[in-house]
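Progress report, Aim 2. The chain analyzed during this reporting quarter is listed below.
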Amino acid sequence: MSESGHFRWGLRESGGGFVLGWQMADMMKQGEEERLKQILIVEDEEVLRMLAVDLLTDEGYEVDEAADGAEALARLRERDYDLIVLDYMLPFYSGLEVLESIDCHCPERRPKVIMLSAKTGPADQGRAWAAGVDWFIEKPYRPTEFVKKVNEILHETDGHELSS
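Predicted structure tokens for the chain:
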């Protein structure tokens, strides 16, 4: 095991499909800051949650996961996150209810929030925007576009993207 990487369990592309297994993952890309960006994925559909975790871990982020609103709130009490990827419809507490309580659980600084949902009507999206999401992504989504948007949001500063 090298200093710049670790082994992790996850999905990897293989022969047109995906395979679960152990693989080497770089923890930091050359030139990145010491602290990895912290992301919380809140998704009740296990396959979608695993996909999001795998995609973002491959990008070099530290990713935690929660399967419902109650678990998300518990995680938010334990740790500060840079980004929360939040499903709209969740068991126990909806994504909107989780979003409304984020300010209470993250008093020092509010993480950025991407909301995922199959609820694509204007009223549903309007409620999400009004609750303070930074971006709304409709399900189903393309993994490459999802990763691109996460990278953009995490590298914005005062409305301007950082140069690479």
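Residues 1-8, 24-33, 158-164 have pLDDT under 50 and may be disordered. The two ends are 29 Å apart (CA to CA). These observations will guide the mutagenesis work planned for the next reporting period.
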